[in-house]
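Posted in: Structural Biology > Protein-Ligand Complexes

Title: Requesting predicted complex, S-adenosyl-L-homocysteine in pocket

I'd be grateful if someone could produce the 3D structure tokens for the following input. Sequence and ligand are given below.
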Amino acid sequence: MPAAKGPGSPPPAGAPAAPPAVTALSPAALAALLGGLGEPPFRARQVRRAVFRRSAATFAEMTDLPGPLRERLPSSLRTVTSSEEAVQRSRDGTVKLLLRMEDGSRVEAVLIPEGGRTTLCVSTEVGCPVRCAFCASGLEGLLRPLRAHEIVEQVLHARRRLAADADAGGGGPREVTNLVLMGMGEPLLNYDAVAEALRALRDPEGVGLGARRITLSTVGIVEGMDRLAAEGHPINLAVSLHAPDDATRSRIVPLNARYGVVRVVEASRRYARATRRDVTFEYVLLAGVNDSPAQAELLAGHAAGAHLNVNLIPFNRVEGIPFEPPSADSLDRFVAVLRKRGVVVHVRRRRGEDIDAACGQLRLKAERRRPGPGAGA
Ligand code: SAH
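-- Reply #1 --
Done. Output follows.
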């Protein structure tokens, strides 16, 4: 695993440290900081609401604060720690943001408008330690986990991007309605930061997204799944099963050696029972690897029961990764077997194909364009 070091250069010796960000402070720490500036306790609530609810990027736009305070705050506080570095727009409306963290590392967040919903997909780690055989995010391994506020800030940037695009006359959606933790990284290997981010995301005084509108996607970290249910985060769960038997799954998901198919399926059923939320088995179809009718039969057995369903994802090609998507015929056959067995199955439409929408691809290209320490060939 490479050292957790970002490509950004350290500030010169003696340079003043950047002030703390509202997103990175607890409500009590923010109140204490503002109290030190002679402000009453309710200011903290005003500032938090401006940053988390209204996604304010600057203090100047917090017009509910007194003018002199708005001018003073930037020397003591920042709104966020990350910035938008690049935006890619697909013809189908998908918008991909490349965000730059304070230490120079980059993560992706993707906005996917569909019907009346706009789903945002956020990252939970820079890179990923899991190294699934078909996934671009794992190619470089884990660079570092994200901190809770860096996960939350992706939502704030996305909301601002939507509002700016709508104001510019794009006619697109204005609000993030649904959130999926399905970008780069394995969220349940960064449990504490993810749980803290979930609290801020669900907090009605914070970002204010309901648990039913949030889905976390995991490769199947069994302890993390149990903990999530036990600690009262009743969000939807997506579990990356990808194969119905250990021999096939071990070929494409290295963590299968630790959490085999049966344990992952049992943990999924426990989660569905405990939370009464939907558990979706994700299944990336790879031609000739996991797309046979016999494998569909086995998968149907795992997915039988209440609150369980299957999401089939035709492989999204990644440069340098030697898999192929299934033929239309084998996809149809696979779906037919599952439906015949009564399984609720969706086939994920490909989105943003013209903009490197597969997990980890945009970041990978940005890194490859930028020779220097850590940049791959
Ligand atoms: N680590 C988590 C979340 C990130 S990956 C997990 O494993 O679930 C989100 C989903 O995208 C996973 O189901 C993953 O297997 C899938 N995925 C990754 N690369 C893909 C590709 N090239 N084509 C299709 N799906 C892919």
